[in-house]
Amino acid sequence: MIIFFLILIISANVSEVFFTQTNLSNLTRQVAGIGLASIGMLLVIITGGIDLSVGSIAAMAGVLCAVFSSTTPLSIVLLISVASGIAVGSFSGYLVAIHKMAPFIATLAMMTIARGLGFIFSNGAPILLADEASAFIEFGSGYWLGIAYPVWIFLVISVICALLLRHHIFGRIITAIGSNEEAVRLSGIRVGIHKLSVYAISGGLAALSGLITTFRTGVGSPIVGVGMELDAIAAVVIGGASLQGGKGTAINTLLGVLILGMIGNIMNLISIPAYPQQVIKGVIIIFAVLLQKFQSKSNHN
Q1: How far is 294 from 130, CA to CA, in rounded Å?
Q2: Is the CB of residue 82 less than 8 Å from the CB of residue 23?
Q3: Model-wide pTM > 0.70
Q4: pLDDT of residue 300
């Protein structure tokens, strides 16, 4: 919250157009996709894992959407695209939960596989959405109550995740797994199926993120989502989640997503090149982690 309001104040003072309706609309629309991937990443990180495949899954899902958009009913196109993400995420979860593979290694392998499949399906070139998929493009550029449709999806998913973590047994179990996996296992709870589930959810939300990008641009591209996994991890960490597991909230992750979005937005408004943004993101991540440790020490004292 401190970082969020600090950057909000700085942004408002640096650029006069920051608080205009057009800019805020563009900002929220741009962060909706990474926001969905960040919610999935949050669930994985809470269990003590990590998912490096989200950017590649987004690209693969977007390509599949574009490939099938000219020959398949739109509802089936959506099903195929999201199911592909769930399948990749589930396999990552299977490797982690059943074969005890390190999450970093398992999802790194699936990151490479999913990106490769995206290039195979697209023959290495961007694919335009077919005219039959004009409803997708209208959705990607449409508004309801002054808020873009993709932003509504992000907000709804964030609320569902917040309720899941706070009020549902599934949320309590995955939080407990991140805190003390062995204790959860000894209590008779099936740890493996819960860990597999969070990776499947992460894959599905990453695919949905890729679809939103495809709807917004009208193009399915195999190079979409490069670096998305790092932004998602950054948003979760800035939001106060612990990479060691057992801690994190959906609302704080939402704020983390907005913080990253505002950094990029304000730098674009004042014409600063993209490269310094990476430096500032890194500095903010370090500051956020140090702030967590400071708060933790204060609470213990």
Answers
A1: 53
A2: no
A3: yes
A4: 60
